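Private note to self, pasted from the team thread so I don't lose it. Backbone tokens:
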């Protein structure tokens, strides 16, 4: 007989009682969906202990009931309809939790499914959860799984983003183990005078003129469909000490952005590509992390550009020489000013273009064709890479006495061409859990590993050193 622990029932999110139209990001993702590179969101939580499959299925089912925005399916759609619609479901159409056969290859196979097998939008929920009992690490450099279990959650990106998946997993953990999984309060800090000036006037944007953003140089044996992925665990780079009550001059997110810029600059130099401005797409999420958090696709995408001055400071890193600490410091300060301005300036989730493409004037079939055509035409001006940083993991992801508290959590975002590269990061226990995901049309597995090694070196170069 299955025994359930008494739990503190989380407060349910706002319920949706009837069909509702796709929001802007959902519709754009639906228009551009393709089988060759599925739009999957992958979240992977490593636990020190084991979990019971039956209890986890019950807890996940209760979590879906508390978050009805995750328990839905796409309504019937015809090309002449004005909008796609979501239909709330009273119960899952199929069991969303599975326990694959354990073994040394179980985790590798589950990761391959996470990148290649997208949950259906026609069946509720568009998300699945696998309980993996892994063996030894599958390949050199893979994070140590330890003796416990791995929970691997996969969602269709048309329906949910990574913060929504983490919220759903946190509610499941609380219902399963009875431990409090409330989010930690966000850090509160006073803004300095310089920062208030930056927010008021805004940082000068990088003007590219007619120059196209840099593309990550291709390196593959032969083109293959789908995505590849590599997970790693890195130390949080140091930052300069600050006076009590004053904000840091730059954040870990700024260090990740600069590291990505240095990585692309050096990679392209090593592959003989011409220097070009690096533009990174950065998701910004202003939603609360509590049980009432609105699920779905709630981030807005903003471009962080690195112009001529930044390229001059990044140039020494391209020649296999360690970057000049003074040049890296200048890069960090300029990047911090830009990101502060971008985060504090509201705007549409996908810019004005995305808003115009989803105005329900034309039928969805016509809008889909226009959207795909616009995406193909804008391909040369697509950003260099996506860098998604959630920051500190807001939830303990504590599955009680049996499962324990998560020792490592990774997530990854899709890496479709023409961008072809996404870098996803969050921090737990003073470490950065980093996922590098790439399109196989751009990189093969060996090239992805080499690019990840360059990123590790570049991130270490942003670490503050006391003169």
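Design output:
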């Amino acid at each position: 007989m299955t025994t359930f622990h008494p739990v503190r029932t989380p407060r349910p999110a706002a319920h949706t009682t009837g069909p509702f139209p796709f929001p802007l990001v959902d519709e754009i993702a639906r228009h551009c969906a393709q089988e060759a590179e599925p739009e999957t969101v992958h979240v992977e939580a490593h636990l020190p202990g084991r979990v019971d499959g039956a209890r986890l299925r019950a807890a996940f089912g209760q979590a879906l009931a508390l978050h009805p925005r995750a328990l839905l399916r796409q309504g019937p759609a015809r090309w002449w309809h004005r909008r796609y619609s979501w239909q709330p479901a009273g119960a899952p159409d199929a069991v969303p939790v599975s326990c694959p056969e354990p073994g040394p290859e179980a985790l590798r196979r589950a990761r391959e499914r996470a990148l290649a097998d997208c949950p259906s939008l026609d069946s509720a929920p568009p998300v699945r959860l696998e309980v993996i009992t892994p063996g030894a690490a599958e390949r050199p450099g893979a994070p140590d799984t330890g003796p416990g279990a791995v929970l691997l959650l996969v969602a269709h990106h048309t329906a949910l983003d990574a913060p929504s998946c983490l919220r759903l997993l946190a509610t499941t953990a609380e219902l399963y183990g009875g431990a409090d999984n409330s989010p930690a309060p966000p850090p509160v800090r006073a803004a300095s005078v310089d920062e208030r000036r930056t927010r008021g006037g805004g940082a000068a944007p990088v003007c590219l003129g007619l120059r196209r953003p840099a593309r990550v140089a291709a390196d593959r044996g032969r083109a293959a469909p789908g995505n590849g992925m590599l997970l790693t665990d890195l130390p949080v780079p140091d930052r300069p000490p600050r006076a009590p009550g004053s904000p840091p001059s730059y954040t870990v997110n700024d260090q990740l952005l600069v590291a990505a810029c240095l990585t692309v600059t050096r990679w392209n130099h090593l592959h003989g590509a011409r220097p070009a401005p690096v533009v990174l797409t950065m998701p910004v999420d202003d939603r609360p992390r509590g049980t009432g958090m609105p699920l779905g696709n709630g981030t807005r995408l903003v471009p962080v550009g690195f112009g001529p001055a930044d390229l001059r400071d990044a140039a020494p890193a391209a020649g296999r020489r360690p970057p000049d600490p003074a040049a890296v410091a200048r890069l960090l300060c300029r990047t911090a000013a830009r990101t502060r301005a971008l985060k504090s300036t509201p705007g549409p989730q996908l810019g004005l273009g995305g808003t115009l493409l989803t105005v329900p004037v034309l039928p969805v079939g016509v809008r889909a064709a226009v959207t795909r055509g616009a995406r193909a035409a804008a391909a040369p001006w697509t950003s260099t890479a996506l860098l998604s940083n959630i920051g500190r993991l807001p939830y303990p992801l504590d599955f009680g006495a049996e499962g324990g508290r998560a020792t490592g959590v990774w997530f990854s975002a899709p890496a479709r061409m023409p961008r072809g590269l996404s870098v996803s990061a969050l921090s737990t226990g003073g470490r950065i859990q980093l996922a590098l995901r790439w399109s196989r049309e751009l990189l093969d597995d060996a090239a992805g590993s080499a690019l990840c090694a360059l990123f590790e070196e570049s991130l270490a170069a942003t670490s503050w050193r006391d003169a």
